[in-house]
């Protein structure tokens, strides 16, 4: 999504909307085609052009302003995006999956790891032995679905990767000290992105409750200020359900961020949200 397209988007958008980044790098963090990545030059142009049209960006959801977010806490942001944000004093949210703080790899990055080793088809054959999958099932695309338990897929991934000897601890994500440094910047906010980045609607109520509450508590236990804005992993309309909204309301969340790239929320989402404000985000390119 080029700067001109972003400007046109915000000019005509009567609601607040945001941009959702993952990796900002001239070389993808995992050097593959699947990770959502924006080059450093494009990122700088995008976030410095928008304020010229709208004025200062904001993290106040009571204002009709664009906002900037980063999901998954990739460490490369510290060398690429963060210096640019600091230089231009641009506020931003960073949404973290707490399991990565112990060096664990998110299950989507485990799938990307299989693709990088050309092992996706072999894994898919094994997955079919334990799950009912359609004939043309795409491992990367179709595994993020309310009909396929993300938790179960990760369990299969862990066993396969262990047998192949390709799994290891890594520094792909920000660590505890990195997050503490971000929290010291007054215009940066940290938020909960669940513990494990599962497709929430594929889980039971109890599993969702654990993912959301433990993801939040793990960050709070680090003595970090964590906002009551929640970013749903994947952010599709079908990635959340009534259980998700019930859990968010019981934990006093104020805002839910999706990633649909659409202006209007579906009616059933608005009804389920109740008093929780729900906003869509766009994935820049």
Polypeptide structure, described:
The chain contains eleven helices and nine strands. The model is unreliable at 10-14 (pLDDT under 50). The radius of gyration is 19 Å and the shape is globular. The longest helix has 16 residues, at 205-220. It has 285 residues and is α/β, with parallel strands linked by helices. Helix content is 39%, strand content 14%. The chain folds into two domains: 3-103 and 172-282, TIM Barrel; 107-164. Strands 1-4-5-6-7-8-9 form a seven-stranded parallel beta barrel. Strands 2-3 form a two-stranded parallel ribbon.
How are the SSEs placed, and which strands pair?
Elements: H1 3-12, E1 18-21, E2 23-24, E3 37-38, H2 40-54, E4 67-71, H3 81-87, E5 92-96, H4 107-116, H5 120-130, H6 139-142, H7 150-164, H8 176-183, E6 188-192, H9 205-220, E7 226-231, H10 242-250, E8 255-258, H11 267-273, E9 277-282
Parallel strand pairs: 1-4, 1-9, 2-3, 4-5, 5-6, 6-7, 7-8, 8-9
Kindly list the characteristics that best describe this protein.
two-stranded parallel ribbon; TIM Barrel; 285 residues; 11 helices; 9 strands; 2 domains; alpha/beta
**In the CATH scheme, what's the topology name of the largest domain?**
TIM Barrel
Average pLDDT taken over every residue = 86
- Shape assignment: globular
Q: Report the helical percentage.
A: 25-40%
Give a brief description.
By secondary structure, this protein is of the alpha/beta class.
